[in-house]
Known about the structure:
The chain has about 290 residues and is an all-alpha fold.
Amino acid sequence: MTSPREEGRRRRRRAPLPGRVARYALLITMSLIVLLPIYLSVVTALLPPKYRLAYPPPLYPKEATLDAFRLAIRRGSMLRYFVNSTVVSIAITAGQVATACLAAYAFTFMNVPYRRTLLWFIVGSGVVPSEAIIVGNFRTVARLHWIDSYPALIVPFLASSIGVLLLTRAFRNVPRDLIAAAQVDGCGHLRTLRHVVVPVARPAIGALAVVAFIGAWGQYLWPLLVTNRPDRRTLPIGLRSLAGGELSSFTVLSAAAVLTMIPLAILLIVFQKQLVRGLTAGLADH
């Protein structure tokens, strides 16, 4: 018996040559469209001053310099923004993974009354636009005196409705025999979750962590509302303030944008296979 992966490879090999050529041509074209702005940002950041106003702009740097990166880090406070974004993104990712694991375990393996209704209620709450609840969240944060603090940037995003749905579907693939064996061995719910369910559903949990980190890293509107002090701003707000300051030039802004993209690029490259496997395992079974 062949595995689904091997069967998919055989089907791709049997596909007509013109169809495969057209498919790869489309993929290459879409990849170039996506990567071209990133490439131009890198080139612009590396240009020396004498090429900055050249027309047409060079498509590759004949001479490269890192002065724009130094200006963005030293005078643009990018290092401070980078630390803030890292702390906030890691905390939000950990919170979403923890709450989603606990909720998904309860919906899957525990006798929760009206669990289907509750699950769809949680999923439905994710459809509500964030702009519709941002005023209420801001008033709550202000009453708690959290303005210009890490809790204001982190606490409202510690749970994810989509994450609960993703892990609930992934946990349904965990064999019930493993759960029964863990209960026979005297494991409670938390030990079963930690030692049995989490290792089996690791791809889906990894996918949720990557998606949560990317979402937290790119937040703009909420950090703009709850931070006034420059030492509490995150990278997107730092980029905006950099664009309106004395360092407002294409090269410095491009360098700052490249520095912002580097962690996300590394994350996607390292966890690409796990992200695809996790999303497929979590969403393709029902």
